[in-house]
Amino acid sequence: MPTPREGSAVLEFHDVWFGYEPGRPVLRGVSFRVPRRGHLALIGPSGAGKSTVFALIERFYDPDRGRILADGADLRRLDRTVHRSGIGLVDQDCPVLHGTLLENLTYAAPEASGAEVERVIELAGLGELVTRLPLGLDTPVGERGAALSGGERQRVAIARTLLARPRLLLLDEPTAHLDAENEAALRRTIDQVAAECALIVIAHRFTTIRTAAQVIVLDQGVVSASGTHHDLVASSGYYRGLAAEWTGRDADSPATVPPTRLNSTEPEP
Ligand code: ATP
Q1: Which residues constitute the domain of residue 57?
Q2: Which among 10, 173, 190, 235 is placed 20 to 30 Å from 94, CA to CA?
Q3: Which CATH number covers residue 156?
Q4: By alpha-carbon position, which residue is closest to atom 3 of ligand 1?
Q5: Atom 26 in ligand 1: which residue has the minimum CA distance?
C-alpha cells in the first residue's frame, strides 16, 4: 500500500462492478469507505459476493467498472506486491504448523523481537493460552503437540499476521461453532485490532457484528444497507430479521448468520 495521505481513507470502493464471467456481474455498483482505524463488518448470505470483495481488495482481479482506491490512489496504478504488503489476510482455515507456538507465530517474521511477539500475543488475546501451555511459547503445537481449539488457531493466525504490522487486516470469521470463551476472546481481539489498524471482517456472529463501527449488508452483489447496528435495526428489514433470530437464541449458543436468510426476507421498506 502507498504512503498514507492525510485525511484519505485506507480503502474506498467507488461504484465497483465485477464479474468472473462476461455479462454475469457478481458485484453491482458497490461503494464503501474504510477509515484508517476501526472495525467494518461485511455480512450477507452465501454467494452475496463477500469473498469477491476481499479478492478485489487484494487485487487478484480488477473491477470491470468503477474504482478501488488505497490511500487515495487507484489500485490499478499500484505495484501489486507493495500494495499486498500492507494487507493481512486471515481466512477461515487456520492450520497450525508443526513446531512450537513461537515458531508458529514468527515463521513469516523470524526477526521479530520478543517485545513485538508479546505485543501481538496481547492483541490477539493469547496470554492465557501461553500461560496454560506447559512450556509456554516453547510448547510444541500442531500435530502430536498441544491441541489448540479452532478459536485459538484463528487467534494465532491473527497474531502472526499482526507481526507484519498491516495497515488493513481482512478477517474471514469462522462459521464453525466457538465456545463462549473463544467467542468472547474473538470479540475482544477484534476490538483491540481495530484500535491499531483498519479491519474488515466477513462476519458471521452477532457478538462481533453488533460492535462494528460500520456494518455493510451485501445482497446479490449490491450493498442493500449500511450503518451501525443501531442504524440497521432502524433502517433494514433484513437486519431486524437477523437480530430477532440472534437474540431469540440461547445466549450460550453463539449465533452465526444463517446463509440463506437474506433471500427469504421481504423487500426493504
Ligand atoms: P460465502 O459466504 O458462501 O463464502 P460470498 O458472499 O463470499 O459467499 P463469493 O464467494 O464472493 O460470495 O461468490 C459470489 C458469487 O461469485 C457466487 O455466485 C460464486 O459462485 C461466484 N464465484 C466466486 N468465485 C468464483 C470464481 N473464481 N469463478 C467464478 N465464479 C465465482
Answers
A1: 35-64+85-261
A2: 10
A3: 3.40.50.300
A4: 46
A5: 20
